[in-house]
Structures are given as structure tokens and as C-alpha cells.
């Protein structure tokens, strides 16, 4: 009888220890995810507001009516309310998905699979984040090429003439732009950090992470510019026009026929400059905020 009681006590003790470990792991995972949300949100707001004028110039260079007719350097902050509202949830959603998927895929996987893990995590994160990013981007870009209209007027006009689906005009083209971008940027960023860490013998500081982010972002921006131009044309297209259908290949073909290679790479310089600087601010701020929170 005493032996049975002792065995039952041991089983209960083991169960208690297991539940304690599980609850500790759950709390630890929850803390990491909360830090990812806050760090990503802060980083997103910082980079979007600081680089907004450069983004406006890039959008106007890519618009079908041309830079001058789209507003030139006038009203360079047109559309900023849309960005201010969408930045935090968009970046937070990206990083909570990215860190969560990366954490799940890393468990028990070989180190040589790390780049593939980062690619999958970044791609899934983009698909989820674009649900928030695209409506904000549509309103922002239309405001950027119509500086005389307020953000609220443009939002009302889209909802009245096109409905909710108008806010998601270009969702497919945005995802098709962001996934290749992230497939290049995030594995390159992680690889550069690992290389720098190995060279110096310790984990990179936040400023070093920012430098890696600048290089990775600039390179990814250059190679995905044609997709960005196609996305801009689709988002700015009038309802009923050929580009309004959201067909990325058709948009790319139209640009190639009318403007050639220069048209496909319209705005590449401000895009590279903006995203290089953006990568420095965004990924550097993300790492620093995350380090402070953890």
C-alpha cells in the first residue's frame, strides 16, 4: 500500500513538473511574440514616417501620368495619415508571423536549412501582413498622386465607387512583389549577420544588424523594381481600365511595350536609396527594441 502511494506521488510530481515546464515555455514564447509585435510596430512607424517623402517621389516617378502631372515635389507628405495608421499593425503582423514561423521551423532542423527557413517564414509573413498593408498602400499612393485631395476624401471615393474590393486592388501584385523581395532580403540579412558574428566572435550589435539590413534591402529593392512598378500602375489604375484587373504580367508587358527597360526600372534610384536607408532604420530599430524588451 505504501509503495502504491509513493508511486502515485511520483507520478503526480512528474506531471506537475511537466506542466510547470510547459507553462514556462508558453510564457517564454508569449513574451517573445509580444516583443516581436512591439519591436516590429515601432520599427515600422519609424521607417515609414521618416522615409515618406522619398516614397512619394518614387510613386510619382512610377505613375502613368508622369512625375510633374502627379504633383512633382508639391505636397510631398500627401497620404501620410494612411501610412501613420497602417504602419504599426502592418509591421507588427509581419514580425509576429516571421518570428513564430521561424521558431517552429528551426526546431530540430539542420543549420544548412536556415536560409530556406528564413525564406518560408518571410513569405508567409508577407502574405499575412499584406492584408493590412494593401488598403493603407492603396489610399496612400492615390493621395500621393492627387495632393489636392485629402486622405479621407480618397478613402470615401474608393469605398463609394469600388467598395471594399477597391481597397484590396493590387493585393496579388503586392504579394507577388513582397515575396520575392523578402526571399532575397531576409535570408541575406540573416546570413550577413551570421557572417559578421562569426568574424568578430560574438553576436552583432543593433547598429551592425542595421548595416546588414541596409545592404540586404538595397539589393532586394533593385532586383524587384519591375514588380514594384507593376504594382504601382495597378493600384493607380482607373476602374475599368486594363491595369485595374490586377494582372501583373499584363501590366509588365504594357510597360515594356510603351517604355521599355527604363519604364520597368522607373524610380529604381529613390527605391534603392529609400529601402537601403529603410533597411538600416527598420531592422536596426527592430533589433534594438527587441534587445531592450528582452
Automatic annotation (TrEMBL):
Origin superkingdom: Eukaryota
Pfam families: Mito_carr
Solcar repeat ranges per the UniProt record: 31-104, 113-195, 204-292
GO cellular component, one term: mitochondrial inner membrane
PROSITE patterns linked: SOLCAR (PS50920)
Record's subcellular location: Mitochondrion inner membrane
Alphabetical GO biological process terms: transmembrane transport
Catalytic activity field: S-adenosyl-L-homocysteine(out) + S-adenosyl-L-methionine(in) = S-adenosyl-L-homocysteine(in) + S-adenosyl-L-methionine(out)
Topology in the lipid bilayer: Multi-pass membrane protein
Transmembrane segments: 29-54, 75-98, 261-286
Keywords: Membrane, Mitochondrion, Mitochondrion inner membrane, Repeat, Transmembrane, Transmembrane helix, Transport
InterPro entries attached to this UniProt entry: MCP, MCP_dom_sf, MCP_transmembrane
Function: Mitochondrial S-adenosyl-L-methionine/S-adenosyl-L-homocysteine antiporter. Mediates the exchange of cytosolic S-adenosyl-L-methionine, the predominant methyl-group donor for macromolecule methylation processes, for mitochondrial S-adenosylhomocysteine(SAH), a by-product of methylation reactions.
Cited PANTHER family: S-ADENOSYLMETHIONINE MITOCHONDRIAL CARRIER PROTEIN (PTHR45667)
Family classification: Belongs to the mitochondrial carrier (TC 2.A.29) family.
Name of the protein: Mitochondrial S-adenosylmethionine carrier protein
Organism: Amazona collaria (yellow-billed parrot)
Amino acid at each position: 500500500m505504501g509503495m502504491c502511494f509513493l508511486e502515485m506521488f511520483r507520478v503526480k510530481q512528474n506531471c506537475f513538473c511537466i506542466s510547470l515546464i510547459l507553462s514556462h515555455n508558453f510564457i517564454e514564447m508569449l513574451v517573445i511574440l509580444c516583443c516581436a509585435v512591439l519591436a516590429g510596430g515601432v520599427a515600422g512607424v519609424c521607417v515609414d514616417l521618416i522615409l515618406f517623402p522619398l516614397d512619394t517621389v518614387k510613386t510619382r516617378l512610377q505613375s502613368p501620368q508622369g512625375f510633374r502631372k502627379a504633383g512633382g515635389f508639391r505636397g510631398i507628405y500627401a497620404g501620410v495619415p494612411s501610412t501613420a495608421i497602417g504602419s504599426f499593425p502592418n509591421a507588427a503582423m509581419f514580425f509576429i508571423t516571421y518570428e513564430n514561423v521561424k521558431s517552429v521551423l528551426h526546431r530540430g532542423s539542420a543549420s544548412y536549412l536556415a536560409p530556406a527557413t528564413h525564406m518560408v517564414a518571410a513569405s508567409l509573413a508577407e502574405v499575412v501582413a499584406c492584408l493590412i498593408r494593401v488598403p493603407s498602400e492603396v489610399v496612400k499612393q492615390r493621395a500621393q498622386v492627387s495632393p489636392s485631395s485629402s486622405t479621407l476624401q480618397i478613402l470615401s471615393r474608393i469605398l463609394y465607387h469600388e467598395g471594399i474590393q477597391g481597397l484590396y486592388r493590387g493585393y496579388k501584385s503586392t504579394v507577388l512583389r513582397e515575396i520575392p523581395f523578402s526571399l532575397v532580403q531576409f535570408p541575406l540579412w540573416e546570413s550577413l549577420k551570421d557572417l559578421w558574428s562569426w568574424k568578430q566572435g560574438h553576436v552583432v550589435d543593433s547598429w551592425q544588424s542595421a548595416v546588414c539590413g541596409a545592404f540586404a534591402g538595397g539589393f532586394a529593392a533593385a532586383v524587384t523594381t519591375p514588380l514594384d512598378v507593376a504594382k504601382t500602375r495597378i493600384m493607380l489604375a482607373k476602374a475599368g481600365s486594363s491595369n485595374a484587373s490586377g494582372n501583373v504580367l499584363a501590366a509588365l508587358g504594357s510597360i515594356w511595350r510603351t517604355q521599355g527597360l527604363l519604364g520597368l526600372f522607373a524610380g529604381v534610384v529613390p527605391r534603392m536609396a529609400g529601402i537601403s536607408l529603410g533597411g538600416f532604420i527598420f531592422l536596426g530599430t527592430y533589433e534594438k527594441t527587441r534587445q531592450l524588451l528582452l
